[in-house]
Amino acid sequence: MKMHIAIVGIIALGAAEPAFAQGADVSILASTCLSCHGANAQGSGGIPGLSSQQQAYLAAQLRAFKGGTRPATVMNRLAKGYTDDEIAGLALHFSRLK
Ligand code: HEC
Question: Which of 4, 20, 52, 66 is the least buried, fewest Cβ under 10 Å from its Cβ?
Answer without folding.
Answer: 4
